[in-house]
Amino acid sequence: MLSVKQLCEILGIGKNSAYKLLQSGEIKCIKIGKVYKIPKKYLKEYITKFSK
Predict the structure, then answer these.
(1) pLDDT per residue over 6-43, tens digit each?
(2) Which H or E run includes 32?
(3) Which end of the chain is more exposed for a tag (fewer CB within 10 A), N or C?
(4) Radius of gyration in angstroms for the set of CA atoms belonging to the chain, rounded to a whole number
């Protein structure tokens, strides 16, 4: 599981961009209260979608 901060570091994007990706559903996530958690498999799916 990744945090939003880790997601930003991996993708090289800012927090606002990360939250847009999560809220739009482009990157699937689990929301626990106000905290977003991103399973690594969903990040891999997102990355492979653009590497083809």
Answers:
(1) 999 999 999 999 999 999 999 999 999 999 999 999 99
(2) strand 30-32
(3) C
(4) 10
Cα 29 to chain centroid, rounded? 7
Contact 31, 23 (CB under 8 A): no
In total, the chain counts a number of residues equal to: 52
Cα dist. 22→8, 49 in Å? 12, 15
User: 36: number of CA atoms within 13 Å, CB side?
Assistant: 21
Distance in angstroms (rounded) separating the CA atoms of residues 38 and 31: 9
